[in-house]
Amino acid sequence: MVRERPWPSRRSRPGILQCIVFTGLGIIVLVSLVVLIFWLVVRPKALEYTVDDARVYGFNLTASHALNATFDLTLRSYNRNHRVSVYYDFMEVTVWYDDQMVAFTEVAPFYQRRRNVTTLDVIAAATSTPLLGSVEKSLKHDRSAGKVGLEVRVRARIRLKVGVVKTKHYTLRVYCAPVLVSFSATPTFDRVYCDVDI
Ligand SMILES: *[C@@H]1O[C@H](CO)[C@@H](O)[C@H](O)[C@H]1NC(C)=O
Ligand SMILES: *[C@@H]1O[C@H](CO)[C@@H](O)[C@H](O)[C@H]1NC(C)=O
Ligand SMILES: *[C@@H]1O[C@H](CO)[C@@H](O)[C@H](O)[C@H]1NC(C)=O
């Protein structure tokens, strides 16, 4: 005797659905595991930036509302990672005062190994940089007070390297403030720790 199965498709439909659900779950678990293992092996750590020294030379605010100055900055870039090295393919450093950019420079591309500290000596010059009225006023005030509070920003295009794998480009942004630069002949400087975003 053949048993009657009037709705054979009824039985297979939940089967397919279950199959899809379990496969989906399986893939999610697998991907999570791979990510977790990668994370545990690589243990990525944020890149660290500090401003170790900052000086200003040739500061001159003229009657034409323009600034001449040379900012001599010592940036310390620390790659704390044991397994990740960094290609810096492009880097620019800007100096800001009161939300106005007053000086700008580019840093030559470099490769940073694991656990490496790279000291960047950066010279950013303001050459007849036109100033907003309010900026000029507070800059004059700071000049006579003997100290100017700046913000140093870094923008870089980086790629990370783990083993033989290189990632795509990311934009690294670094914000260092307040960077207090003294006009005294024998300036002292306190290290400034920067915020780093990728
Ligand atoms: C600023 O520049 C003007 C014109 O070049 C010059 O006369 C003046 O001495 C300079 N001031 C300082 C503080 O260097
Ligand atoms: C970091 O790398 C640079 C360039 O390869 C090298 O000159 C420097 O000595 C390294 N610094 C440390 C602390 O390893
Ligand atoms: C500022 O620098 C520019 C370019 O070097 C120069 O022409 C100008 O005279 C300077 N101004 C002052 C006040 O030093």
UniProtKB/TrEMBL annotation:
Residue stretches making up the Late embryogenesis abundant protein LEA-2 subgroup domain: 74-174
Name of the protein: (wild Malaysian banana) hypothetical protein
Membrane disposition: Single-pass membrane protein
Main location: membrane
Gene Ontology BP term (one): defense response to other organism
GO cellular component: membrane
Origin organism lineage: Eukaryota, Viridiplantae, Streptophyta, Embryophyta, Tracheophyta
Transmembrane segments: 20-42
Domain of life the protein comes from: Eukaryota
Pfam families: LEA_2
Keywords for this protein: Membrane, Transmembrane, Transmembrane helix
InterPro entries attached to this UniProt entry: LEA_2, NDR1-like
Compartment(s) of residence: Membrane
